[in-house]
# Entry
Amino acid sequence: MLSFEQILSKIETEISKIYFTEKPGSLFEPIEYTLLIGGKRIRPALTLMSCNAWKEDVTPAVKTALGLEMFHNFTLLHDDLMDEADKRRNKPTVHIKWNNNTAILSGDAMLITAYQLIGETPEVHLKKILDLFSQTALEICCGQQFDMEFEKRDDVSEDEYVEMIRLKTAVLIACCLKSGAVIGGASDEDAEHLYRFGNFIGLAFQLQDDLLDVYGDEKSFGKSIGGDILCNKKTFLLINAYKSADYSQKNQMKYFENPLNSYKPEEKIKAFTDIYNQLNIKILTQEKINFFYEKAINELGKVKIAPERLAELYRVSEILMNRNT
# Structure
């Protein structure tokens, strides 16, 4: 079996082979830029690791894994545009380096390329993988729409938020794991356990992202700290802060969320972070992360193959839950 590190190396090698000869080059340059500035490559790695649990040769799953990584980067490109984010992986975002129209059109080209790559899945599994991917892509659009709508609402519940991040983030991780399992020859039951494992680990992963946006190190995180706070984005932390805050704390948060008021960005970030600290929101969020992580590990334990075939997935799960990027 391949180690996580060997699979990452394989993915980077394969990504380095992706290049575009079509014209105009200005359409494809942002795509190559987006792919080559790095990233954790978690999603394609999980695809190949899942395949490797059943099959020694992961080659049949490589194009599928690359397509899923291409799609993931497409979502980031458009997400950065919608959020007006200025940095991704410590580099200027595409709409900053080029412009908004380029970000939209190059993102569209990435989506089409993702389908082309996934279309090279072995024919015996192609329909099942395409159906799963298409459903996942639609769910992610639903999650993004919920995310945007939540910005205009003051009554978003914790359950609604968890469902939004399931759609926006977790379903793609679940799709990657199930796709690899299907191509590797897993039973329907085992493939579904891996999907559920991915769903729960994805929820924990996104909640950790929420946490790192406030408490992470900017150099390690690769994005500006406090970005969610500055955008008035509904996160697990903000929702629970409003649930627990007293009158004074709520008024302070509302003051900084009002675009008519004048303040420096660092003042807003500090004010919200102080309130989160006063209300022990960091601890509450970590407890929720642990809750979903335990559910994920429980699903992985239901897969009916030799435990050593899943050892790397267990190890990567621990890595994901102890990251700072």
